[in-house]
Design a protein that fits this description.
By secondary structure, this protein is of the alpha+beta class. It has 6 helices and 5 strands. The protein has a 5-stranded antiparallel β-sheet. α1 packs across α3 and α4 packs across α5. The termini are far apart.
């Protein structure tokens, strides 16, 4: 009888983890062995509200990943594992984890999942090398603004050339008209 509540708790934990795997933009698996509770709390704060960082039993996390249709992570579920479920900017979360790992070398990024595909630790670090979504959008807006300015100048050039031509013709007529009057 004592086993039923435990099993219900495990089923509930697997269901929650499965939802987290399905609903997050990315998931990063880390080994947190050696981090204090204070450091884990600091890490959670540094990741912000868009990333849920939770410690999980490997068997439950492995089952949840499988239930979510994610493959290729089984080898990463060894040792103490914590999962960072990213619901916001994946690049910012990867940067946050890398920065924390530099300050606290006992945190090890094992790998992750992005767009349903398994990532190695190196691939997660490559994500951290990318610029954030906001920076990329700002660059795109700047490029579009520059191209629109060039387009406006291109469309405006024939019009200004036509105005100069009409002005030159008018000046020529006035010159011819004043020459005939003299």
């Amino acid at each position: 009888m004592a086993d039923k509540p435990v099993r219900a708790d495990k089923a509930s934990a697997v269901a929650e983890l499965t939802d987290d795997f399905r609903n997050s933009a990315a998931t990063v698996l880390t080994e947190y062995r050696g981090l204090t509770v204070k450091q884990l709390t600091e890490l959670r704060r540094s990741l912000g509200g868009d990333t849920k960082y939770s410690v999980s039993k490997n068997t439950l996390a492995k089952r949840a990943a499988s239930d979510a249709g994610i493959e290729g992570l089984d080898a990463l579920f060894t040792g103490p594992t914590a999962l960072a479920f990213v619901n916001g900017d994946v690049v910012e979360a990867a940067k946050g984890l890398r920065a924390f790992a530099k300050a606290n070398p006992v945190l090890i990024v094992k790998g992750g999942v992005f767009e349903g595909k398994a990532l190695t630790a190196d691939e997660v670090n490559k994500l951290a090398d990318l610029e954030s979504r906001e920076v990329l959008l700002a660059k795109l807006a700047g490029a579009m603004k520059g191209n629109l300015s060039k387009a406006a100048a291109t469309f405006q050039a024939p019009l200004s050339q036509a105005v100069r031509l009409v002005d030159a013709l008018r000046a020529e007529r006035e010159k011819d008209g004043s020459a005939e009057a003299a």
